[in-house]
């Protein structure tokens, strides 16, 4: 089992994400006493009987004033069994782009719904985005379950909590099955972030639920596989910087610095430099702490090669045995993140790994209707938050794997050449076809 889990939150506005994240930090004793005191005082000033734990995480003034999360923030906490890096993402539809960013590296996502509202439009949108991103594990946190079955006069919602939880779980299971997850990859948990029910420990208030608490599940969920349905591939090493000190101590030093994006590398390995196709082998692996015998995915190192070659930033050093073919034209699935719609013929910049090149968008092949889980062929444009498949042609070839093979080497960004703003997150290949879409709405 890995000792680190990368996770993210997602859900609609007012589903209680900030409160749940605050509860996770509070129950794992990951906040300082003076922070708790400040939250308690602020809660009393607002006339609240219990501390508002959302104040622990809604740190921006604009967030506190609006009562919503508007940016991705990374939280760190730990239990004796595992450490966690949590990307707290916004719930408002306006900030779906932030959800894409926060969930792009997540091994598990906690998707919240309000027990009084159930699965809503934004829930389906987020689930579709998470499926396309290849997030391997999901938790549906049915929050505010404490408000079901209490007196309407007290502001609660009528109904049987067990029946409500079962109905929401069944609808969500139908949705996730249609999007390609197996039942082993999805868990539904009834929680009350406000009071802590089923967050750190099992609650007596939910006798109809016999599964683990949220933290117990996070501690035990297997995350050995980086992503759902991915394949093992050889070395992918985008060159970030060429190191040439040219000092008396290192007159002939030439190293290629970067991060191992996939696979591993060791001295003696045969590699190919792409897109040129020149072959050589690795002489040694340098780091600030000395030489390594092997570097795995995620490790930042400097490679020293046997031959002096013409290599620059943006090139990729790959395993010779399974090196990908550089591509200049390809189809990709994109999540459009800009107010201005995307239309055929748009001239943009494409950033893949350490390479940035000019790109032209060709045809808009299809748009994904995440509400009906169906594809709409040949749209005239892609609007803000739309998911769709497009064709792209780049000025300089990129060294990419299909996203279905590897999420790190199969993803890219589309950028506005004028202002430098990110316009779209892209996935190389026909990712939409990997999602088992139907034609009937999910109800």
Structure description:
The radius of gyration is 24 Å and the shape is globular. It has 3 domains: 4-220, Rossmann fold (3-Layer(aba) Sandwich); 236-322, Translation factors (Elongation Factor Tu (Ef-tu), domain 3); 327-434, Elongation Factor Tu (Ef-tu), domain 3 (Beta Barrel), CATH 2.40.30. The strands form 4 sheets. Strands 2-3-1-4-5-6 form a 6-stranded mixed sheet, with helices on both faces. Strands 7-8-14-11-10-15 form a 6-stranded antiparallel β-barrel. It has 7 helices and 22 strands. Mean pLDDT is 84; it is low at 60-70, 225-229 and 436-443. It is an alpha+beta fold and 443 residues long. 17% of the residues lie in helices and 32% in strands. 43% of the residues are buried. It has helices at 17-27, 33-45, 61-66, 96-103, 121-133, 161-178, 214-220; strands at residues 4-11, 73-78, 83-88, 108-114, 137-143, 186-190, 236-243, 255-259, 264-265, 270-274, 278-287, 290-292, 295-296, 300-305, 316-319, 327-336, 347-352, 355-369, 374-377, 387-398, 411-415, 422-428.
